[in-house]
UniProtKB/TrEMBL annotation:
Residue span(s) of domain HIT-type: 23-56
Matches recorded under Pfam families: zf-HIT
Keyword Metal-binding appears in the UniProt entry: yes
An example molecular function term from Gene Ontology annotations: zinc ion binding
Organism of derivation: Anisakis simplex
An annotated GO cellular component: nucleus
Keywords carried by this UniProt record: Metal-binding, Zinc, Zinc-finger
GO biological process: box C/D snoRNP assembly; maturation of LSU-rRNA from tricistronic rRNA transcript (SSU-rRNA, 5.8S rRNA, LSU-rRNA); snoRNA localization
InterPro entries (alphabetical): BCD1, Znf_HIT
Official protein name in the record: HIT-type domain-containing protein
């Protein structure tokens, strides 16, 4: 007989709350800011300015 209680235990390890979203510009650091127009995520003033220059 197979113990079915162990099935799916590993699925809970990568819960959505533990996923870190990276900066959409540099993809190196977790984001800190969101663009109010398009919700673009950026980690720094430099990345935010770069986004504004490209999309404004």
């Amino acid at each position: 007989m197979v113990d079915e209680s162990a099935v799916g235990e590993n699925e809970s390890e990568a819960s959505p709350k533990s996923v870190v979203r990276l900066c959409d510009q540099c993809r190196k650091e977790p984001f800190k800011y969101k663009c109010p127009r398009c919700l673009f995520r950026s980690c720094s003033l430099q990345c935010s300015k770069h986004h504004k220059e490209q999309h404004n």
